Amino acid sequence: MIHQGEFMARLLGRAHGLFQGDFDACRGQIEPKVRASRVLVVGAAGSIGSYFVKQLMDLHPRGVCLIDPSENNLVELVRDLRSSDAFIPNDFSTVAIALGTTMFDRFLAHADPFDVVVNFAALKHVRSERDPFSTMRMIKTNILDLAQWLDQLEKKRPDHFFSVSSDKAVQPASLMGASKAMMEQLMFLPSRRFPCSSARFANVAFSDGSLLHGFLRRLEKGQPLSAPTDVKRYFISHEEAGQLCILSCFLGAHRDIFVPRLNPEADLKSFADIAILLLQARGLEPELCADDHAARAFARKRRPDDRRWPCCFSPSDTSGEKPYEEFYDSSEPLDETRFKELLVVKGHAAREDRVREALAGLTTVHDAPDWHVEQMAHWLGGAVPGLRHLSRGKNLDEKM
After folding, report:
1. CATH architecture of 12-203+237-263+328-398
2. Is the pLDDT of residue 337 over 60?
């Protein structure tokens, strides 16, 4: 069997953190800013947010407030901090509420101003657009709630605002990706009076809800592994994701988008290949099955001592899935000299009239008695002309 550390090194193609060198080189710039800052982190208890918080604490912030709607995850994060050697400032609090609620609005109205505001609240899965109700929840969280929050912050302007984006925001093939592209535009409006930065990055290996996390759950439950053969993705670790966000948050200028410097030839991995690597790490080998039915049948009959594990690998046939990832397009200027393992995309000032019109259209759709995905896609396309929605009439919930 392969040791866990060796497995992650094989998966990521590196033995050390991708951004560790840049992080160490810039720590002298980052730490004084963190020590002087009272920081609000929304979506703090998620996979990426929690690692950001742990690394933030290591830099000794002046104050921290953590917000997340998951009371259980928030409690676990606090217990984790309190049970370790983590620094916790005297000005420390948690609030189990959600962005876009009356409780959040009241919190903002009564809270003292924050120097740095960080947002990890988002719906990040392409499967979020499987129906009009899920799609509207995604649009509300990623766009409408964010727009209202940014306007509220104009009254108590922070020194810096950071919100995490996605590689899927580049030439988006899904409404989720388009919602992230519009999120960037809302931050980068010409009328915005405080600096905003972001980060686009790859899949975080084994983050909650990811396909790789699903592999672990399938193994726990004795169920087949299923993966597309023609979809390749970049992967980074939780620690790398946290470091990338800290670098962008405390070193990024207005409209800067930090992205990894990765090599498509060496770093793109297929999900099917990762499934095989994971099985090998467990001392198992793939048993390739013709279809879902055959894979489930093999799983039912498999003996505990059988080293073969049922797998069903097939080409992707669901809506919104791009076969590859990209972190910027040819129209976006790049700063390639500032960091060793990072590129800085110099984001454009958004077209305020176009973004505001799309925002008004989406708000009208939200307030209507009936919701239609086609209307949502229309208004998203108005703000994000690069949207090329890949609709195949099938969503991920119909796949094993």
Report:
1. 3-Layer(aba) Sandwich (3.40)
2. yes
DSSP letters, 164-203, are E--GGGSS-SSHHHHHHHHHHHHHT-TT--S-EEEE---E
Which residue carries 């726990």 as its tokens?
A: 220
- Distance from the Cα of residue 109 to its chain's centroid: 28
Say if strands 285-288 and 225-228 run parallel, antiparallel, or are unpaired.
unpaired
Tokens (6 digits) for 285:
């080998």
d(CA 104, CA 314): 44
Sign of CA dihedral 350, 176, 117, 343: negative
Tokens of 70: 């998951």
For residues 241 and 308, what is the distance between their CA atoms, to the nearest angstrom? 34
What is the per-residue pLDDT across 245-303, written as a single tens digit (0 to 9) for each?
Answer: 999 999 999 999 999 999 888 888 888 988 998 999 899 999 999 999 999 999 999 99
Query: What pLDDT does 213 receive?
Result: 85
Q: Phi-psi category of 208—alpha, beta or left, where left has phi over 0 and alpha has psi -120 to 50?
A: beta
For the beta sheet containing 308-314, the strands, ordered from the edge strand earlier in sequence to the opposite edge, are 225-228, 308-314, 285-288
Kindly list the domain boundaries of the chain, sorted by start residue. 12-203+237-263+328-398
CA-CA distance, 155 to 193, in Å (whole number)? 10
CB 261 within 8 A of CB 342: yes
The SS3 of residue 69 is coil
Bridge-based pairing state of the strands 269-270 and 232-233: antiparallel
Residue 202: predicted pLDDT: 74
Q: Residue 322 pLDDT > 90, yes or no?
A: no
Query: How far is residue 83's CA from residue 265's CA, in Å, rounded to a whole number?
Result: 42
pLDDT per residue as tens digits for the range 360-383: 999 999 999 999 999 999 999 999
* SS3 at position 81: helix
pTM for this predicted structure: 0.90
Strand order in the sheet with 256-260: 91-95, 63-67, 38-42, 116-119, 160-164, 196-199, 256-260, 342-346, 334-335
Is residue 62 within 8 Å of residue 38, measured between CB atoms?
A: yes
Residue partners of 55: CB distance under 8 A and separation at least 6: 239, 242, 243, 246
Contacts of 8 (CB under 8 A, 6+ apart): 205, 237
Q: What is the 3 state secondary structure string of 363-374?
A: HHHHHCCCCCHH
How far apart CA 127 and CA 298 sit, in angstroms, is 27
